[in-house]
Structures are given as structure tokens and as C-alpha cells.
Design brief:
The protein is mainly beta. It has one domain. It is 6% helix and 74% strand. An 8-stranded antiparallel β-barrel has the order 1-2-3-4-5-6-7-8. The chain is elongated, with a radius of gyration of 16 Å.
Length: 142
Amino acid sequence: MSGVIRHQPAMTLQPAPTKVRGNFTGVCSGKLTDRRGRTRRVKEALARYEGRGAGELSCLGGTAPGTGRLVFERGPQIEFSLTERRTPGLAVVTLRGAAGGSATVRGTARGEDLVKINERCNGSGLRLLRGDARITSPGISG
């Protein structure tokens, strides 16, 4: 999946309370089981990831708990709580499904010049970051 992460206020090198919102779109493959227990296979189904949280963050790292949802093309959605852990250049987000299960999201910067990101972190701050995310799950429901 690809998308953007927004920070309010902009992240700098100094840890500070920061709200974060991530919106990504892409495709998912695997099995979906509905509320009635019926399972169907999906292959490259269009999906949208929406997550938001708040925590003590900086360009060097931090943790932000929050909530979100994964919405599939034809309506099914999975609500979850999340914990985002950041290090320079990488975010790992643990999802806990509202009805059970888990998933891991690994996010990286996409199409961003790391030198320019560093300059923004040292200056006015990093308000927006384009990124890619890969979600893997042994099973999550929400």
C-alpha cells in the first residue's frame, strides 16, 4: 500500500506530543471471513488503511498508540487498535483487531530524499511524509 502520514505539529529532532494520521491505499490478498463465518478468497482486492494516533514522537523515534480500520473495496472493514513504533526511516505498527487477532504493518519512506527529510527534521519539521506499507497477518477480525 502507498500513502501519506501527517504529523501535527510537524516532527523535529526533539520529542514532543504529536498527532499522527496515516492514509494508504493498495491491494490485499488472502482470505476474508464475514460475521456469519463464510470465508472467501480475495486476490489483489482494493483496500484502504486509515490509522490515527498520538504520542511522544520525533524524527528519531517514538511510540504512538491509536485506532484505525482497514476498508475493503466491497464494504467489509476491520476495526483495530494500533501501536506505532518508529525509528529513523522505519515504522512498525502492531494492529489488534477489535474482535481478535493481530497484524503487523511495516512502513518506509517512499520517493523521499532522505537528505531533505533530515534537513526538514533539523529545521521547520516534518509535517507530511509519503510512504509504503506492507501489512501481514496470521488472522485479524474487527
